[in-house]
């Protein structure tokens, strides 16, 4: 991984957009997603701080092998903002544009 940035979002939003974390330790409040895109680029998302409540985790380190992967993660999160991010249950997500 050669590129990295920090993003601000919630655990609920990440689960709604990217699904179940690759690694999760709810007791330590540690989450990590390993993402691979159609173009072959890869990214890893993990929370910056550990401990506390998962509802309060907002800062995430995004590392990737390309700028394209960072752009794809950012784009998918922006698309996800059209949906309710306050619940972990996908069936409760509503499209805010309709």
Describe this structure in words.
This protein has a five-stranded antiparallel β-sheet, with helices on one face. 22% of the residues lie in helices and 29% in strands. The protein has one domain. It is of the alpha+beta class and 98 residues long.
Poorly predicted ranges (pLDDT <50, ≥5 residues)?
91-95
Q: Which radius of gyration do the C-alpha atoms yield?
A: 13 Å
Q: For the largest sheet, list the strands in their spatial order.
A: 1-5-4-3-2
Structural class: alpha+beta
Helix content: 10-25%
Give the termini distance in whole angstroms: 38 Å
The tally of helices reads 2
Proportion in β-strands = 25-35%
Largest sheet: 5 strands, antiparallel
Mean pLDDT, rounded to whole units? Answer: 80
The counted number of beta strands is 5
| Count of discrete structural domains | 1
Label the overall shape: globular
Q: Can you lay out the helices and strands and say which pair or pack?
A:
Elements: E1 3-8, H1 11-18, E2 23-25, E3 30-36, E4 42-47, E5 59-64, H2 67-80
Antiparallel strand pairs: 1-5, 2-3, 3-4, 4-5
Would you kindly provide a brief summary of this structure?
This protein has 98 residues and is of the alpha+beta class.
Which labels suit this protein?
alpha+beta, globular, 98 residues, 2 helices, five-stranded antiparallel sheet
